[in-house]
Amino acid sequence: MSTPTLTPLPELKPEQLYHRCDPTKFAFGSTAELGDLAEGLGQGRAVEAICFGIGIQREGYNLYAMGPAGAGKHTIVRRFVDEKAGGQPVPADWCYVHNFHDAHQPRALQLPPGRARMLHDQMAQAVEDLRVGIPAAFETDEYRSRVQQIEAEFSERQEKLFSELSQQAREKSVALLRTPSGLALAPLHKDEVIDAEEFGKLPPEERRQIKTAMEELHHDLEDFLHDVPKWRRETQHKIRELNRVVTRAAVNSLIDELKKNYDGFPEVQRFLEEVEADVIEHADDFRRSKDGEAPALFGIPLGDQEGSEASLRRYRVNVLIDHSEARGAPVVYEDNPAHDALIGRIEHLAQMGTLVTDFTLIKPGALHKANGGYLILDALKVLSQPFAWEALKRALRSREIKIESLGQRLSLVSTISLEPEAIPLDVKVMLVGERLLYYLLCAYDPEFPELFKVAADFQDDMSRSPENVQLYAQLVATLARKDHLRPFDRGAVARVIEHSSRLAGDAEKLWTQTRSIADLLREADYWAGEAKRERVAVDDVQAAIDAQERRASRIRDRLQEETRRGTILIDSDGLKVGQVNGLSVLQFGDYGFGHPTRITARVRLGAGKVVDIEREVELGGPLHSKGVLILSGYLAGRYIPDQPLTLSASLVFEQSYAGVEGDSASSAELYALLSALADVPIKQSFAVTGSVNQRGEVQAIGGVNEKIEGFFDLCRVRGLNGAQGVLIPSANVKHLMLRGDVVSAAAAGRFHIHPVDTIDQGLALLTGMTAGERGADGAFPAGSFNARVEARLSAFAAQARAFRAPGESGSEKGRD
User: Fold this and answer.
1) What are the angstrom distances between the C-alpha of 136 and each of 129, 212, 255, 440?
2) What element of type H or E holds 806?
3) What are the pLDDT digits (tens) for 467-494?
């Protein structure tokens, strides 16, 4: 059998390494000639979901906008919500007032837009008018004369009865005296009050008559003294009734005028009626407040003027939500969605070491502000705040906002608080967050799918069609105009579009995460300013890209330096058995770069196990371990199908001191393993990337551009010799958007990029030998690489049989 001839593996042409955007295809000279983009670029599916979620008015149809950070989720959601809200009616105002039946349960009043503030101002003015009008009503001559008349009636009645008792006592030789300690009875003799000594000199019969008279008069006096407080109460009752009449006269006209302003609002009418009754009942509060002196304890004021008149605070109106200046439905974004920031809070004041509160200290939350409109929240921030997520769900389920103290609810404080009346809730909540959070909530929170029925999924990229390229130019114009940047000429726009494909990692896609594009535009505008240009040119965009990379590339440069100095062992020339250059991507924050890694394999006779050293020491992740296990399946299915595998192989990433994850190096590991089995050296001038399946087909991987550039940078520093290059999966050709220096080197024949579909194709390039396919006789061609691998495995199997004990072999034959 003759040795098979080697068919050269084709390499990629320069135009396949970088998909240029031709600026001559643009009809504009600069972005100043373009209008703004109407909606999110490439987000048609998400926009449809947003419009549906905004439009449907059914319970539970709140929206979750999910996608990667920087995709413009918040901006797009806010834009469509603002458009919808602008044409909707302004929702009602809400305010809290004192509950005159239970002060700990303030009442909520709903009023048309702007009327709550009006009620607040009118009540404040009414209190001021009452503070003047009520004291003035009590200072009139008519009031004084009526009070004097009532007092005179009491005094006259008291004097009349006293005179009658005095006359009766005098007729019985007893005197009724007024003393500092009260009324007293004393004996009389010849119309003169006598003392005890003179009384003892009187005849016994006269003394007996006087004593009897005094005892009788004593009972009459007690009756008199018993009736006096009763008469005093009657007098005070008359004065109070008079006060009520006077107060009512001062209050009625004022409250009646207020009531006329709120016809058709029964709750407000009820509140004003209760205010009227309470003012009449507590008119003295207004009379005392006239002088304006704050109460004090031991000479220390208990508070300011407002605090000293706490009794008048119950007539205030606490405007919770005021839409007097609103146009359309409210749209609220809460940046700090803590529990109290969402549902409101009840504040307290410290007075004499005690915390006190009332309905005027109730403060609104984001749900109050967005009631009747839309509330936009960051999902991660809500879930990060203690009790905020549960509070939001409870409000959406019950469709009402109930303000409660978190400390009171958790029994952390014993301070007496309030229980404000709940406010009906009608709001559309828009959560903005990552996809992972959405899927986790769907999986672990059974209430989430019931409350957020609409998902708007934002795409990471979109097709790079001619139509979308034109729209992307319009996006550049929109972002530049929004940030007041210089216009971008069409060459600069084309370079931005090319960089967008690079960010997407696909020459046929465009990046839709506008944050990174907007950053690039701002930085390009800066470099245009440094160059004194009125328009941003392609050089400015390239300068911004280069500056971004330089700012983030310290670790990459340090690794390249250590590789150049020989600290990290990587060969870029020569031949080695069981050794291949693998490619990986290191990610640090937003910056990722490719870095070559030496992969080695050793084989010997064994039990048919391929040992992944990374997995054994728990540095290999599950995907990497899966890729290594596939190698065993490939060997078992490709070689010596009628004999057991009796090899022991070990694979390792040399000088790897951190975790290894992903299966993109599985093809490189297989090349190293097969090289060790065939004892055929591999060209170290090539690096390899790609995953492999059990049939030996090379599959696509991620980060192909960074991986190619990582090996190119190493070769460039050491000197490009024209024999160096990279093997990539053919499926990754459409993803190539390589740097200009890599493309130039490939065009000059100093660096080569070869696409491969199978392991056999890669073996031919790496070893210079034909891999070989089984013939009709079931054998690989003599002299082929696969023939050498199979011969080595057959030798291992023969050695394994030879190591068996004769008794074991005989017993096996006996069993057969």
Assistant:
1) 10, 56, 17, 69
2) helix 806-815
3) 999 999 999 999 999 999 999 999 999 9
The helix (run of H) or strand (run of E) holding residue 96 is: strand 93-97
Residue that has been written with the tokens 């500092």 in this structure: 180
Q: Is the per-residue pLDDT at 617 higher than 80?
A: no
**Distance set, CA 159 to CA 153, 155, 166, 171, 749 (Å):** 10, 6, 10, 18, 133
Reported residue count of the chain is 816
Token pair for residue 160?
A: 């009349």
Put simply, whether the predicted model's pTM sits higher than 0.90 gets the answer: no
- Separation CA 377–CA 365 (nearest Å): 13
Q: How far apart are CA 715 and CA 713, in angstroms?
A: 5
* CB crowding 79-112: b at 16 or more within 10 Å, else e: bbbeebbeeeebbbbbbbbbbbeeeeebbbbbbe
> What is the band of 189 on the pLDDT scale with cuts at 50, 70, 90?
low
Write out pLDDT tens, residues 768-806.
999 989 888 888 999 899 999 999 888 888 888 887 755
- The position carrying tokens 């004291």 is 135
**β-bridge pairing 63-66 and 400-401:** unpaired
Catalytic positions, written as ranges: 664, 707
Residue 684 pLDDT > 80, yes or no?
yes
Strand 725-729 and strand 686-688: the pairing is parallel
For 729, the 3-state DSSP assignment is strand
Which own/partner pairs from 194-201 qualify as long-range (CB within 8 Å, at least 24 positions apart)? none
**DSSP percent split of the chain into helix, strand, coil, nearest 5:** 50, 20, 30
Residue with tokens 């460039």: 716
HEC states along 585-629? EEEECCEEEEEEEEEEEEEEECCCEEEEHHHHCCCECHHHHHHHH
**DSSP conformation class of 84:** H
Three-state DSSP at 151 gives: helix
Tokens linked to 810: 């005989």
How many percent of the chain have pLDDT more than 70? 82
Nearest of 363, 362, 342, 359 to residue 425 by alpha carbon: 342
Which of 305, 265, 219, 340 is CA-nearest to residue 97?
A: 265
Helix (H, G, I), strand (E, B) or coil at 231: helix
Q: Over the range 131-151, which residues count as b (16 or more CB within 10 Å of their CB) and which as e?
A: bebbbebbeeeebeebbeebe
